[in-house]
Design a protein that fits this description.
Layout: E1 2-4, E2 7-10, H1 13-25, E3 30-35, H2 41-53, E4 56-61, H3 81-91, E5 95-97, H4 101-104, H5 123-126, H6 130-145, E6 149-153, H7 157-169, E7 175-179, H8 199-204, H9 207-220, H10 226-237, E8 243-252, E9 267-275, E10 278-285
Parallel strand pairs: 2-5, 3-4, 3-6, 4-5, 6-7
Antiparallel strand pairs: 1-2, 8-9, 9-10
Length: about 290
């Protein structure tokens, strides 16, 4: 264990459990914010959100190899641990868990957690195995920390749905809190992968929040047909030929299954696509 000001930094599960046990013995409510590092204001908002409900907050900084598929960006995923630790400390984290894969996954690990309903479609269609890796690593973190509350960002809508379903189905005693997407001044959802964008593609990326706004505007104008709302979003996306649409779906907010009609408070629009080699995702309520 390393003491970094008022914050501890641990790399192994036994160290993590010892620190959590001490916090619980002191009567603290324990919060958890899982991240893959390269932290931005969106991540820090999650840590601060956990801090409002908890007396003690653990943040994980772990680029999880099991949620990357063949040909994805595991090797080049941005890593900036020194800067991440400083940011976590400033945001009020009590502890950062920053293991190497060999510290966290036992040698010869062969057990998986897999959700088979809300993980289908959307990103699940294009990233086979991704949500199995997500569910497994989050289940491992829940077991290691045993938090009272865990906070996740709304931008990763399908990931949030998978984790909620897993916690429900497996009777995990943790409250899952969703924090609204934190955005740049022009509306682009904050993401660690945004730093992959060239200057030109960063300007083009504004088309993503504009497409969501077009869908919401269609609903606000009285449109109830999911297909017409989807067409409004796709119409806006078509104005930027460099953005290659992967999917654009109007779906039920809980099941993430496509719907035929928009129902207030129960419907979302979600989309994904590429600008160059950078994959962007976003969503909003309708």
């Amino acid at each position: 264990m390393v003491h970094d000001g008022a914050m501890d930094v641990v790399r192994t599960v036994p160290e993590l459990r010892k620190a959590v046990a001490a916090a619980k013995a002191a009567g603290s409510v324990v919060g958890l914010v899982p991240t893959m590092g390269c932290l931005h204001e969106g991540h820090l908002a999650l840590i601060r959100r956990a801090g409002r409900d908890c007396g003690w907050v653990a943040a994980s900084v772990f680029v999880n190899p099991t949620q990357f598929g063949p040909g994805e960006d595991f090797a080049r995923y941005p890593r900036a641990l020194k800067e991440d630790l400083a940011a976590c400390r400033a945001a009020g984290a009590s502890l950062v868990f920053a293991p190497e894969p060999e510290d966290f996954y036992p040698e010869g690990a062969s057990t998986w957690v897999e959700e088979t309903a809300v993980s289908q479609g959307l990103c699940g269609e294009f990233r086979p195995g991704h949500f199995r890796g997500v569910a497994t690593v989050v289940a491992m973190l829940f077991n290691a920390v045993q938090p009272d509350i865990a906070v996740f960002g709304r931008k990763d809508l399908q990931q949030l749905a998978v984790i909620r379903r897993m916690a429900r189905d497996l009777h995990m005693p943790v409250a899952i809190v969703a924090h609204e997407t934190v955005r740049e001044a022009d509306g682009l959802a904050m993401s660690s992968r945004n730093r992959y964008l060239s200057a030109e593609d960063r300007l083009r990326a504004r088309i993503v929040p504009e497409a969501l706004a077009a869908a919401r505007a269609a609903v606000a104008a009285g449109e109830g047909s999911a297909e017409k709302v989807r067409a409004a979003a796709l119409g806006r996306l078509s104005r930027e030929p460099a953005f290659k649409v992967q999917y654009c779906v109007v779906a039920d907010a809980e099941t993430l299954r496509p719907v035929g009609h928009v129902t207030a408070g129960r419907t979302v629009v979600a989309l994904a696509g590429h600008l160059g080699a950078t994959r962007l995702i976003d969503n909003c309520d309708l």
